[in-house]
Amino acid sequence: MARVKQQRMSKRTLEQWLSEYSISHQNLVNKKIHWLCVPTIFVSLLGVGMSLSVWFTLVLSALVLLFYIRLSTPLFLAMGIFILICLSVMAFLPWGFKVWAGIFIVAWIGQFIGHKIEGEKPSFFKDLQFLLIGPAWVANSLMQRKNS
Prior knowledge:
Elements: H1 2-9, H2 14-23, H3 28-52, H4 54-71, H5 73-92, H6 97-118, H7 130-147
Helix pairs in contact: 2-7, 3-4, 3-6, 4-5
């Protein structure tokens, strides 16, 4: 028990997080599902949050960005830009809580289908922080493609 607590309290590098996350994301179909569903979940979660409480969502977004800046400045910038784009698009969409919640649920179903195909449990079953590493993994994949 103490070892688990110590592991959670230790500061992993972005590379360590991404390496561990990648273990359960090897299958090409699962990867493609995640590249689509992870950003969709992120944006729909912002949509749900904005429909409930703008200020709470903005504060939570700032806390998420603090998590990312601790890992990597380029990741922080990429995710900050992504959040700003999401919030800007939402300002012009007339969608409410039900639509965003529906998108959220459908995207999660996609994620679980991907993990069924992969034959591995989602990483967040081990550590909830992996819920924030998924978007980082997608952003990192996009940044690597751009640089290659």
